[in-house]
Design a protein that fits this description.
D-tyrosyl-trna(Tyr) Deacylase, Chain: A, two-stranded antiparallel ribbon, alpha/beta, six-stranded mixed sheet, 154 residues
């Protein structure tokens, strides 16, 4: 699972000129699910995202989380984060999770964020989305579950 997390002043997602979700200050999260990802990995990823201390405190230090500032999350599904570009110039997505499974995890991610008391706007799974955002910083963090939550070699 890969999440690209961007600190924003505001963001919105539209599909066919119809808004699906918008937020003020907070995080835009582009979430890509890969083969073998499950709710356990997702739960760890959501907690990591909500606890990232990437907002400035009164001293100008990145020391506050999205929860600390009362911010929101805009969750966008993005299977292209799983692109394999090692061979040739056309990306392969063979390691991306199948759409029905990925959609279930995406919906679960939104539920998990909301269950933590954080407002969560959404994209539209499987649709062509237009994302407008005003990055703050900019601050962009890439979270790769294989690197931060290594699986045991049982």
């Amino acid at each position: 699972m890969i999440a690209v997390v961007q600190r924003v002043k505001r963001a919105r997602c539209t599909v066919d000129d119809s808004e699906t979700g918008s937020i003020g200050e907070g995080l835009v999260v582009f979430l890509g699910c890969g083969e073998g990802d499950d709710e356990d990995v997702l739960g760890k990823m959501v907690q990591k995202i909500l606890r990232l201390r990437i907002f400035e405190d009164g001293n100008g230090k990145m020391n506050l989380s999205v929860r600390d500032i009362g911010g929101s999350v805009l969750m966008i599904s993005q299977f292209t984060l799983l692109a394999d570009c090692r061979s040739g110039n056309r990306p392969s997505f063979s390691h991306a999770m199948k759409a029905d499974e990925a959609k279930a995890l995406y919906v679960k991610a939104i539920e998990m964020v909301r269950s933590e008391g954080v407002e969560c706007g959404t994209g539209a799974f499987g649709e062509h989305m237009v994302i407008e955002q005003e990055n703050d910083g900019p601050v962009t963090i890439i979270l790769d579950s294989e690197r931060i939550f290594p699986r045991s070699l049982d």
